[in-house]
Amino acid sequence: MSADAPDLFEQQEINRKHSRWLIAFFVWFFGWLGFGGDFLLREATRGGRFGGYHYFFPWLTVVMLFVGTAVALYALHTGARKVLWATRAWPLLEPHDAAEKQLLDVVEEMAIAAGIQRPQVYLVEDDDPNAFAAGRDESDARIVLTRGVLRVCTRDELQAVVAHEMGHIKNLDIRLMTLLTALVGAVALMSDGVTQIVFGFGLRGDDSEKQGEDIFIRGLLLILFPVWILTWLLGPLVTRLITLAVSRDRELLADAMSAQFTRNPTALATALDKIEACEAPTTSIRASVAHLCICDPLGRAVNARRGFWADLAATHPPMEERIAALKGMAYQGSEPAAAGAPAGPG
Amino acid sequence: MAPIVVGVAVVAVFGLYFVTAYNRIVGMRNQVANAWNQIDVQLKRRHDLIPNLVETVKGAMSHERETLEAVIAARGRAVAAAPAGASSGPPSADVVRQTAAAEGALSGALGRLLAVVEAYPQLKALENVSSLQEEITSTENKITFARQLYNDQATAYNTTQQEFPANMVAGSAGAVPAELWAIADAAEREAPKVDLALGAR
Hints:
By secondary structure, chain A is mainly alpha-helical. Chain A contains 12 helices and 4 strands; from the N terminus they run ααβαβββααααααααα. Chain A is elongated, with a radius of gyration of 24 Å. In chain B, about 75% of the residues lie in helices and about 0% in strands. Chain B contains 7 helices and no strands. The interface of A and B includes residues 108, 112, 156 and 340 of A.
């Protein structure tokens, strides 16, 4: 491998670290949401309006920290299943036809090449070709392919696509990405609930305003409450932005690992070409799972560009760049591959 | 007092390095042994598959007797050369060379047989032939990838034990460079690339 080739162990460490940060961020985010509630309750019970009861201990913060931890752990352990459920993927245990048999064979071959356990194989009944991997680590990994991949790819290309997903599994991209997907989902769900509560709250707002006596508290509430609510509402957007920020260049690394496993970068290049050529968006893969896929299932134009804003908003590197990089590898690889034993930890 | 502290610290640093390097070398040796056993599993699978394939195509290929017999003979030699049981350490250089030679010859003979099968449309049309073909393609690939993994891990293992300063630890860890699986057989190198993609595309 060349000197600037990405280092597997470095990437694993980065993914472990980011996963921990993500969980920490998520738990503190919940804590902040609880703290806002505590603050409001504290101000509201000031001045003995409720028979001398003064809310002091930040119960909501404590409760929300626990809830956040619980949700994060739950997401870590069941995230992959949730993602599979969202795409309506079904486990391929016994092959029903030659194509499915070939897929299972190819997955086993690539597991050997990558030196990991054979991941579970799932199929999505969608005619548009796409693929992704999910799970916590090697022993909990799942590879998901749409029916379309089996339709358009030759055996070598299928091998390259599966090897690309093995790359995501091996460098632990799947842990971070699955966690993100599950947490984004949890925040979105929460935000939906809050939006409804806020609407209900707004209707009753007139009455409580008449009862309110302390101008200071009302003023404070007026400032703090919108900020707090904004956090609840913007939560999904923020988590979404995190998703985008972390995902773009790991596709290039997974491409490189695919080439390392198959020693055939050209097959991945032609596979990507074919997958890209099928213009129809992958309807059974929703936006929330897009950053997991080998090619953007939404066919967004922003992925075709580079630059600050495009890098911020896109989930995938430009396809041309990926294919060019793979062709470069094929050109370089023609010599050392013949020698038989490229260096680098398997 | 101070020289003693410095001395102890230096010894501790060296000791710590020794332990880390030793453990890393042992870990890598086990990985190499495991990779070798992976190859072994796939080779056994191939040995088991070949009689099946020969039996299936024999009837339709009576005048390809030579090709079939070459495969059977090569299989016999490969089975004889196969080491018995899983090894706990990396294979010896002799074992690797003998296995590589016998299996290489088998790969070459098998490749020629598959190429001949390609030339018999009526044979290819049989359902159990096409499923056998997939089975064999997959097994051949598994052998290739297991061999690739073995070579990669053996290379990493060899590099680690030869590099300074880990080479000073390698001796006491009982590390010996592992033999790479080189493709020695000319027939295997020339083996036609059989693309058994399902259905022509």
